[in-house]
Amino acid sequence: MANIFEESAQEYDDWFVRHELAYRSELAAIKTLMPQEGRGLEIGVGTGRFAAALGIKVGVEPAKAMADRARNRGIQVYEAYAEKLPFEDESFDFVLMVTLLCFLSDPFQALCEASRVLKPQGNLIIGIIDRGSPLGKVYDAKKHENKFYRNARFYPVSQVIDWLRSLGYENLSTCQTIFKPLPEITDLEPVKPGHGEGGFVVISARKVK
Questions:
Q1: DSSP collapsed to 3 states, 45-81
Q2: Any idea what the CATH number is for the domain that residue 72 is in?
Q3: pLDDT tens digits, residue range 50-86?
Q4: To bridge 48 with a disulfide, which of 70, 126, 156, 198 should be the other Cys (CB 3.0-4.6 Å)?
Q5: pTM (predicted TM-score)
Q6: How many domains does the chain have?
């Protein structure tokens, strides 16, 4: 999986320019549930598009070509994997993952690692393409047509919430955006509470201990 992100890092980064309204809509959804203070980490920081815009200074990214672009955006990037983070326990006030779980061979282990480096009462914020939404079902059916999503495994919100609850998280909240296919988006998409309609869903959960 890392190879495609090494080989096509610029193409990946260009997506955010071509689909600026969708990108800004996703940012707005994340900001709705992300803490405004504290030391944050983005796991799977990619080219740094989200971290830079959200003021997150530390990221993890295994693909060097992506990591280098994130560094150019001012992010301190560690070239490591989500399933084995290079940080001490309870190092961060909040942790962000955006469209990451679908690319991992062991997403639950990645959530365990995120929990390990998160301080008690810290927040884990996860952005996913919701397989249970109308748009998510289209993405899933056509993923073979997209070089980045070809080997992805999209999850419904309910699956991610079950994982989080099994790890002892509380205060779970969700919001959603991206209600139209990308070519039909001509303005910022609304951000609505809950999930089930929007293709992009943000989940926030608090680590109890």
A1: CCCCHHHHHHCCCEEECCCHHHHHHHHHCCCEEECCE
A2: 3.40.50.150
A3: 999 999 999 999 999 999 999 999 999 999 999 999 9
A4: 70
A5: 0.94
A6: 1
- Measured CA to CA, the distance from residue 68 to residue 184 in angstroms comes to 32
Interatomic CA distance for residues 207 and 169, integer angstroms = 5
The DSSP-derived string for the chain is -HHHHHHTHHHHHHHHHHTHHHHHHHHHHHHHHS-SSS-EEEET-TTSHHHHHHT--EEE-S-HHHHHHHHHTT-EEE--BTTB-SS-TT-EEEEEEES-GGG-S-HHHHHHHHHHHEEEEEEEEEEEE-TTSHHHHHHHHHGGGSTTTTT-----HHHHHHHHHHTTEEEEEEEEE--S-GGG--SPPP-EESSSS-SEEEEEEEE--
Tokens at 142, concatenated: 């056509």
**CA separation (Å) from 148 to 97, 152, 177?**
17, 8, 21
Cβ contact 70:43 at 8 Å = no
Can you state the angle between helices 157-166 and 107-117, rounded to 10 degrees?
50
| Parent domain of 29 | 2-207
pLDDT tens, residue by residue, 138-191: 888 887 777 777 888 999 999 999 999 999 999 999 999 999 999 999 999 999
